Every structure is written in structure tokens, then in C-alpha cells.
From TrEMBL:
One of its GO terms (cellular component) is membrane. It comes from the Bacteria. One of its GO terms (molecular function) is NAD(P)H dehydrogenase (quinone) activity. Coiled coil: none annotated. NCBIfam families: PRK03767.1. This is Transcriptional regulator. InterPro entries: Flavodoxin/NO_synth, Flavoprotein-like_sf, FMN_Rdtase-like_dom.
Length: 183
């Protein structure tokens, strides 16, 4: 079964919760999930290496929204990957993106597009959330066709809604299916 790298930065826990939904879904469907972060924030965190990118069969990449952009920790890491780009190491690997913001209009879609840019430059195949996921049409919280999202709201809740969980699971399932077809 494919190995999916789930690479994320989480400031308050929302993005970590989403990453764990991705991992649980992938493992429950027989895949291998590897959770990595950009910087150690808790004892159990494992910091990503470029070799993690090279050896994975697919990538789920997420950060919180920072004014419609990825977290600086993620950007700093991607800026070190020119050697992988020069060798074409990530070409044709499937990938998806996910994010969290404080409000419905807090920049989730802009962030998802921003997260996509280094993946596209590396030649990765970007997967969104298709509209055959019924929760995408009904959500009043997170979830976009560009990727899974969470909206923390005025209470800054890190708890994902059932709709957000289903969209995370759908994105993870699709990533695993495509990675499986390609490996």
C-alpha cells in the first residue's frame, strides 16, 4: 500500500486535528500514514526531512491561514527544496492541501491556493475535493473544492465539525486511491 506523508504546521491544534483525520483515514483503508511537522512543538512531533518527500507516494500538506498565505515555517521549508526540484524528485506524485482559519472569510481558499504553488512547481498532481462529496455542497463551516478546511469561529474552537471531518476523510481517501493507482 502507498505511503502518504501528512506534512503540517499547527499553531492552536485545528490543523493538527485535521492531519490526524487524514492519517486515521489512510491507515483505516490500508495505507501507511507518516505525520511530519516543520518544527518540533510537542515531544511526539517529528520534523520533516526532504527525504520524507522523496520516499512518499503522496502528500497531504496543511497550515493555518496567515493573511491568505501559508505559515512562515512551511514557506521556509519549501524554500530549501530547490535540489529536489532540479532533480524532478516530486514530479507526478499526487498531493492535496488543507487549512484552517478563524472565520468563514478568513482566507482559507487563498491559503489553499498558496499552499498549492510549491507543489505545482515541483510537478506534483494536485487533487481537490470533488462535488460528489455531498458535505461540500451543504457545509456552513469548512470545506472547499480546493481542499479541506476548518473554521474555528469566534470561540477559536479546534474541534472539527462532522462536516469538516467528512471532507477531510474524503480528501484523504481520494489521495490514497490516486497514489495506489500510480504506485
Amino acid at each position: 500500500m502507498p505511503t502518504i506523508l501528512i506534512l503540517y504546521h499547527s499553531s492552536h491544534g485545528s490543523v493538527a486535528n485535521m492531519a490526524h483525520e487524514f492519517a486515521e483515514t489512510i491507515v483505516s483503508q490500508g495505507g501507511n500514514a507518516i505525520l511530519r511537522v516543520f518544527e518540533e512543538r510537542q515531544d511526539h512531533d517529528v520534523v520533516v526531512t526532504k527525504q520524507d518527500l522523496v520516499t512518499c507516494d503522496g502528500l497531504a500538506f496543511g497550515t493555518p491561514t496567515r493573511f491568505g498565505m501559508m505559515a512562515s515555517q512551511a514557506k521556509a521549508f519549501w524554500e530549501t527544496t530547490s535540489d529536489l526540484w532540479l532533480k524532478g524528485e516530486l514530479i507526478d506524485k499526487p498531493a492535496c492541501v488543507f487549512s484552517s482559519s478563524s472565520s468563514m472569510h478568513g482566507g482559507n481558499e487563498a491559503t489553499l491556493l498558496n499552499l498549492s504553488l510549491p507543489l505545482l512547481h515541483h510537478g506534483m498532481m494536485l487533487l481537490g475535493v470533488p462535488y460528489d462529496v455531498p458535505e461540500l455542497l451543504a457545509t456552513e463551516q469548512g470545506g472547499t473544492p480546493y481542499g479541506a478546511t476548518h473554521v474555528a469561529g469566534s470561540q477559536n474552537s479546534t474541534t472539527l465539525t462532522q462536516t469538516e471531518i467528512k471532507i477531510c476523510r474524503a480528501a484523504a481517501s481520494r489521495l490514497l486511491r490516486v497514489a495506489e493507482k500510480l504506485t
